[in-house]
Design brief:
The protein is α/β, with parallel strands linked by helices. Helices cover 38% and strands 15% of the residues. The longest helix has 20 residues.
Length: 568
């Protein structure tokens, strides 16, 4: 326990062990096996997938030269996983255990974290693993891990802060730059960017100059040096790691949608990560890529929604055109032992920071149907790998990521249009059940609601005050082109139940699929009333509630379903 925190519980909270192993073994492990194909470590890395295409031409050829970063290291789960893999590699090369451990901690591993308590836990975790692996603290000191807290804001006034330079003009210029960067550090953390102008001075030289000045000012009794000196040390260390470029970046990013972000964070992300601004997780994906050297790789745990939502279309297109996607695993709900239900639907993603070559294949697997973390971990061992052309993903509707060949596939939009229904703005005021009236008359009209199951007629129990809705300022009246025509009503939740649509008013919770030609209606009903419909739609959008815009993007084989309809 450190400061009341149970180390094991905190570690488990951030990233499940199987996620760490899967991502590390298919990047760090793949690099090692690229160098040493006959390494006996291959048998230990049970999640390694040899079908994945890799390019390590820009990586070093020795573990001693490898630079690894976790920019959201939490309690150090990824760092500990990498520590053990690197130790095995160095031992295989004949390096003594203590020398190998010292080199890993000093040269290989780097970590950043917003929360100073997590930095303490991560530091202890690395030290504990080093001792367990054979490093003797009684005989020599373990190097201080390269971990820094990026969440230390500068609370001093600017004039007080600059006094820490002790009159050194060069040091004062650097501290002034850092003041502007770190004044909101407790909000921005590892999103803080250091450009080339802020790294002209060697980090070791800068730290040495600062320590000399600080010592002198403290001896002179300067209260500023005493009060803000430690903050200065922390900022310098964090700045050095933020300015670095790494061969490999690995992390589980924070999740926070744009609507829940504070003004400082929201405006920063909009300015620096405009394509991924809808979620802090996608902003961090871009930030991780910026930490990489050309040809470097990232391994990252993310929520899945950006793979298919229309609002991320430009973001997907940018990444597909400019970054090489190596391996993607869909985990779905229940991937975390400590998070239940549908709260987080995660993916595991390995990307190389380089443009994809022509014909590059993105490999993927899907274990989202497994119920819990343990089942998903087992399924990842032997789940079917599907490899599709990365460039071909740009040809999918809205560049949605799909593990299937969409070439020469006809979509539902070729024969039907999916309409969004009306939002009344106040259902209790405008909607009733038809049996509350002796006779349904104006201004009331029949309303076809959500079907409860897949059946010919369902959801036909409501009426709506259409005149009232049409004049209500908070309503959104839609669906005009479907009225007085026949089609299919579809529920947006659970198994997406379908029923026949009769041409009346319908709510926004019940999209209506209207065939462009009425002769297609039997085939359309045969498809929507089959299990294939929900399966195909969930492949495009696995969200619990599916918007109407995605329905028309389902692959649809008209001759096949016409044949099925004729048989039925």
């Amino acid at each position: 326990k450190i400061e009341g925190y149970d180390i094991c519980a905190v570690t488990q909270l951030f990233t499940e062990p199987y996620m760490v192993q899967f991502l590390l073994q298919n990047t760090l492990g793949a690099w090692w096996l690229d160098l040493y194909p006959d390494s006996p470590l291959r048998e230990e890395w049970v999640y390694y997938k040899d079908q994945v295409q890799h390019d390590f031409s820009s990586w070093p050829e020795s573990p001693a030269e490898l630079k690894i970063l976790d920019p959201c290291c939490g309690s150090g789960h990824f760092l500990v996983g990498a520590f053990h893999m690197l130790l095995d590699m160095r031992r295989e090369l004949g390096e003594e255990t203590e020398d190998a451990i010292r080199g890993i901690v000093r040269d290989n591993l780097h970590g950043l974290e917003l929360d100073p308590r997590c930095i303490q836990i991560a530091t202890f975790s690395i030290a504990l693993e080093a001792w367990k692996a054979g490093f003797s603290p009684m005989e020599s000191y373990l190097p201080v891990p390269n971990l820094a807290c990026t969440g230390i804001p500068i609370r001093a006034e600017k004039e007080e802060w600059l006094r820490l330079a002790g009159g050194d003009g060069l040091l004062e210029g650097v501290l002034e730059q850092y003041y502007d960067l770190f004044k909101n550090a407790d909000t921005l953390g590892s999103l803080i960017r250091m450009d080339s102008k802020q790294t002209l001075i060697d980090r070791a030289t800068l730290t040495k100059k600062f320590e000399q000045v600080l010592r002198r000012e403290r001896e002179a009794g300067d209260p500023v040096a005493e009060t803000f000196g430690e903050t200065g040390h922390g900022v310098l260390k964090a700045a050095g790691l933020l300015a670095g470029r790494y061969d490999y970046v690995m992390t589980n990013v924070p999740y926070l949608s744009g609507g829940k972000q504070g003004e400082i964070l929201k405006s920063f992300i909009q300015e620096h990560h405009s394509l991924g601004k809808n979620e802090i997780a996608t902003a961090f994906l871009e930030r991780c890529l910026s930490f990489c050297r050309p040809g470097g790789k990232i391994s990252i745990v993310l929520p899945q929604n950006w793979l298919f939502l229309v609002s991320y279309k430009q973001f997907r297109e940018h990444l597909l055109k400019n970054e090489r996607w190596d391996l993607l695993a869909r985990l779905g709900p229940g991937a975390f032992e400590t998070i239940s239900g549908e709260v987080v639907k995660a993916i595991l993603l390995n990307i190389s920071h380089t443009k994809p070559p022509a014909g590059h294949l993105l490999c993927g697997l899907d274990v989202s149907e497994e119920r819990d973390a343990a089942a998903k971990a087992r399924s990842l061992l032997d789940a079917e790998i599907i490899c599709v052309g990365q460039a071909g993903q740009l040809e999918n509707p809205d560049a949605i990521i799909q593990f299937r060949d969409t070439q020469n596939v006809s979509l539902l939009e070729k024969i039907a249009y999916c309409h969004q229904g009306t939002s009344t703005g106040d259902n209790p005021q405008f909607i009733r059940h038809f049996y509350e009236f002796r006779e349904v008359q104006q201004p009331w009209e029949l309303l076809e609601g959500v079907p409860e199951e897949i059946t010919l007629y369902s959801g036909k129990i409501s009426v709506v005050n259409w005149e009232g809705v049409s004049n209500f300022p908070r309503s959104a009246v839609r669906g005009w082109n479907a009225f007085d025509r026949r089609g299919i009503s579809v529920g947006q939740m659970r198994n997406l139940p379908a029923t026949l649509y009769m041409g009346y008013r319908f709510p926004n919770t019940t999209p209506v699929i209207r065939p462009l030609n009425k002769k297609y209606l039997p085939a359309l009903w045969a498809f929507c009333s089959a299990l294939n419909f929900a399966t195909e739609l969930r492949k495009i959008n696995p969200k619990l509630s599916v918007d109407n815009g995605y329905i028309s993007k389902i692959p649809f084989d008209l001759p096949h379903w016409q044949k099925v309809a004729a048989e039925q």
